[in-house]
Amino acid sequence: MANKFAIVTGASSGIGLELAKLAQADGYDLLVVADTPFVDAAAGLTSGGNVETLEVDLSTFEGVDRLLDAAQANPRSMKVPGRRQDLYHLRARVALQRRDGDRALSEFNAALDARPTPQAALAQAAALGANGFPEQALTHLDHLADVWEPQRWRGMSMMALHQWLLARQGYWEHEIAHLRGVLEEDIRLRGQPPQPSSQ
User: Fold this and answer.
1) Distance (Å, rounded) from C-alpha 60 to C-alpha 97?
2) Angle at the Cα of 108 (from 29 to 93), degrees rounded to 5?
């Protein structure tokens, strides 16, 4: 079925396998993942082109990388709206866990290129800054300025009214300027030697 794709972890037995069976019965294409062999799963899931198995240990960075690679390589997965941005964002979060700010910036920029929104850019820049990469966060905000153009909403839906109000008030510009100021202050403070405590 179109746009019905799920990743089920722990799917070689037990609850994970049962969840995979229910999802398959409901018409989902599946990527089932486990760190143990899929011996029992083969009997429980119907064979066919809509089930892909992946045996990896998700407690390791390598296992997570293999899962993200498999999801990206799966054509059914990439038909789900927003999936490409999700994968870029997840890869960036993994890069932050690895303490690789440049890789995280690259992945966040790719997510922004796929669908530029100030909401996403602010959250991503804040994540970079909070993880000790304020320079990359500022670079990400610069990238937003290069790729984002406020949309002109037509009609009177609640979404259109909300976007119109935010644009009229300069909300995103204000939020971006505020975060930029916080990040610049963080960079300035990092360049100074630690101050002795007053005690």
Assistant:
1) 11
2) 70
> What is the rounded CA–CA span in Å between residue 68 and residue 161?
37
Alpha helices in 98-154 (DSSP H): 101-114, 118-130, 134-147
- Each residue's pLDDT tens digit, 105-125: 999 999 999 888 888 899 999
- Tens digits of per-residue pLDDT, 51-74? 888 999 999 999 999 999 998 888
Whether residues 101 and 44 share a domain: the answer is no
> From the centroid of its chain, how far is CA 199?
44
Question: Is 68 a member of any domain?
Answer: yes
pTM for the complete prediction?
A: 0.74
* CATH number, residue 64: 3.40.50.720
- Range of the structural domain that residue 111 is part of: 82-189
